[in-house]
Design brief:
The chain is mainly β. It has helices at about 120-130, 135-145; strands spanning about 10-30, 35-60, 65-75, 80-90, 90-100, 110-120, 145-155, 165-175. An 8-stranded antiparallel beta sheet has the order 1-2-3-4-5-6-7-8, with helices on one face.
């Protein structure tokens, strides 16, 4: 299964209720009079749409798993769209959208995740420091000991020549102490 092929340190779980549809279309039909054979060429298109609930995503690069994931799922023509996603990251509500489609070498991914009110505290700092997770950010925590709340927006796009990750922080209420 796809889940068994995930890289080490990555886990996905959840429930989905899907409606599946198969569309067929006759593309070409030939009758060979000399041989008495009839050949037909068909096009098959699968589509699935539904709702994801009780989802869980764990990645060794994240300080905590993303939990309580729900949203809409659409699979059509080999593309997967996860839209209107909601969940929890650390102690913050999380929203987002993910689009995955086939590409030459590996699947192309566009994703946007937003945590509106992420609490920056010791728990988050400890989560960032283990197993090589975001080491540069962990050094900032060690040096400045930030505490408070921030908004976080993560955008990932692997459709270009090189994957691009953009992380934006919107500081709401933060104390910083130089150690």
């Amino acid at each position: 299964s796809l889940v068994d092929q995930l890289p080490p340190g990555l886990a996905i779980d959840g429930q989905a209720e899907l409606a599946v549809q198969l569309r067929t279309q006759l593309l070409d039909s030939k009758l060979s009079h000399s041989e008495g054979l009839h050949t037909a060429q068909w096009d098959y298109r699968w589509t699935a749409a539904g709702v994801l609930s009780n989802g869980f995503y764990s990645d060794r690069r994240l300080p905590t798993p993303i939990t309580d994931i729900s949203g809409a799922i659409i699979w059509q023509d080999g593309e997967l769209r996860c839209e209107r996603l909601i969940g929890r990251f650390a102690n913050s509500p999380l929203t987002g959208n993910i689009h995955i489609w086939p590409s030459a070498q590996s699947p192309a991914v566009k994703a946007t995740l937003v945590a509106e009110n992420l609490l920056v505290d010791e728990t988050l700092a400890r989560g960032l420091s283990g197993n090589g997770k975001l080491q540069s950010l962990s050094k900032v925590f060690d040096l400045y000991s930030p505490r408070g709340a921030t908004g976080l927006k993560l955008t990932y796009d692997s459709t270009g020549l090189e994957p691009m990750t953009e992380l934006s922080l919107d500081i709401h209420d933060m104390d910083v102490t130089y150690v």
